[in-house]
C-alpha cells in the first residue's frame, strides 16, 4: 500500500481536482446539476479549479476572479453543499494526509458554508 503524503505540487492539486470532479460527475444527487451547468466545458472548469486550489493551498497566485458569481443562481440547497463536502473530504482523505490536505478540507467547508449562505441571502432578497 502506498504511503499517503501531503499536497505539495500542482500535480497533487490536479490529482485532487480530477478525482473529486470525476466522482461529482457520477454522483446521483449533485452530478446531474453539475453536468447540466458545465455541459461540455469540463476541461475549462477543471483548469480554473487547478488555478484556484494552487492559489489557495500552494500560495502560487495563478487564479484571479471571483468564485461566487457563477454559483449565485444555482438551484442548490444546504443538502447539495453537504453532499459536495462529503465527496470532497472522502476524496482528499483517500489521496493525501498532512497540513495542506487538512487546509483544503477546511477551506472547502468554509467556501461551501459561505456560498450556501450567500445563495440563500440573494434568494430571499429577490423575494422581497
List keywords for this structure.
128 residues, mainly alpha, Globin-like, 5 helices, 70% helix, globular
What is the H/E order?
Answer: HHHHH
Report the biggest beta sheet as strand number plus sense, adding barrel if it closes. none
In DSSP terms (H or I, runs of 4 or more residues), the helix count works out at 5
Mean of all residue-level pLDDT scores: 91
Q: How many domains comprise the coordinates? A: 1
Could you explain how this protein is built, in words?
The chain contains five helices and no strands. The chain has 128 residues and is mainly alpha-helical. The protein has one domain (10-127): Orthogonal Bundle (Globin-like). The mean pLDDT is 91.
Summarize the structure.
This protein has five helices and no strands.
List the helices and strands and how they pair.
Blueprint: H1 10-26, H2 31-38, H3 42-58, H4 78-95, H5 99-127
Helix pairs in contact: 1-2, 1-3, 1-4, 3-5, 4-5
Amino acid at each position: 500500500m502506498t504511503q499517503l503524503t501531503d499536497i505539495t505540487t500542482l500535480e497533487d492539486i490536479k490529482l485532487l481536482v480530477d478525482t473529486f470532479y470525476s466522482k461529482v460527475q457520477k454522483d446521483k444527487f449533485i452530478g446531474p446539476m453539475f453536468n447540466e451547468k458545465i455541459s461540455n466545458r469540463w476541461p475549462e472548469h477543471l483548469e480554473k479549479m487547478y488555478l484556484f486550489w494552487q492559489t489557495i493551498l500552494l500560495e502560487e497566485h495563478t487564479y484571479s476572479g471571483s468564485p461566487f458569481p457563477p454559483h449565485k443562481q444555482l438551484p442548490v440547497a444546504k443538502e447539495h453543499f453537504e453532499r459536495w463536502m462529503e465527496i470532497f473530504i472522502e476524496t482528499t482523505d483517500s489521496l493525501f494526509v498532512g497540513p495542506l490536505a487538512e487546509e483544503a478540507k477546511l477551506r472547502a467547508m468554509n467556501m461551501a458554508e459561505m456560498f450556501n449562505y450567500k445563495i440563500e441571502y440573494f434568494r430571499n432578497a429577490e423575494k422581497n
